[in-house]
């Protein structure tokens, strides 16, 4: 897929920290319970750390106790793309930013969480940047 923001890998490497690059550009995963936003209750907007596109809002964040920030719905259905991921010997659905193609995490359905969508967007904190709501 062609993305609105398309940079050579050398430029991504220069703009992102090694950890950010590993997760966002190489589909890595940060360790569970280590992310900056795992337990955050701050009201605001979560944007893609690589390109700044709005991805999720705090109103859809919920406690899943899985070790990563969890959301039940993206801010806009066109903000993320879902791709089949058969890596690591399992079938999962990868979540990417539609603006720059960066890896965000995975989405799971039917786990029984009491949310309106019965979905859990399990997103790496390092893929996000939270802009707190002005009060």
General description of the model:
With 135 residues, the chain is mainly beta. It has one domain: Metal Binding Protein, Guanine Nucleotide Exchange Factor, Chain A (Beta Complex), CATH 2.170.150. Helices cover 12% and strands 31% of the residues. The strands form two sheets. Strands 3-4-8-7-6-5 form a six-stranded antiparallel sheet. A three-stranded antiparallel sheet has the order 2-1-9, with no helix packed on it. It is globular, with a radius of gyration of 14 Å. The protein starts with 8 loop residues before the first helix and ends with a strand. Keywords: Oxidoreductase.
Tell me briefly what this model is.
It is built from two helices and nine strands. The protein is mainly β and 135 residues long.
Q: How many separate domains make up the residues? A: 1
Q: Which term fits the overall shape?
A: globular
SS-based structural class?
mainly beta
Radius of gyration: 14 Å
Fraction in helix: 10-25%
Instruction: Determine the strand fraction and express it as a percent band.
Output: 25-35%
First CA to last CA: what distance? 39 Å
Number of helices: 2
- Report the CATH C-level class: Mainly Beta
Low-pLDDT sequence parts: none
- CATH architectural grouping: Beta Complex
Report the mean per-residue pLDDT as an integer.
Answer: 95
| Number of DSSP strand runs | 9
Order of helices and strands: HHEEEEEEEEE
Superfamily (CATH H level) name = Peptide methionine sulfoxide reductase
Strand order of the largest sheet: 3-4-8-7-6-5
């Amino acid at each position: 897929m062609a993305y609105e923001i398309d940079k050579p890998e050398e430029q991504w490497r220069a703009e992102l920290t090694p950890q950010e690059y590993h997760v966002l550009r190489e589909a890595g995963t940060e360790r569970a319970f280590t992310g900056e936003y795992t337990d955050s209750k701050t009201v605001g907007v979560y944007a893609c750390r690589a390109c700044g596109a709005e991805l999720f809002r705090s109103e859809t964040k919920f406690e899943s106790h899985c070790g990563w920030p969890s959301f039940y719905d993206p801010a806009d259905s066109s903000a993320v793309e879902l791709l089949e991921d058969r890596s690591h010997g399992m079938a999962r659905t990868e979540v990417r930013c539609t603006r720059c193609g960066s890896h965000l995490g995975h989405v799971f359905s039917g786990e029984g969480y009491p949310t309106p969508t019965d979905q859990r967007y399990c997103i790496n904190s390092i893929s996000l940047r939270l802009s707190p709501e002005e009060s």
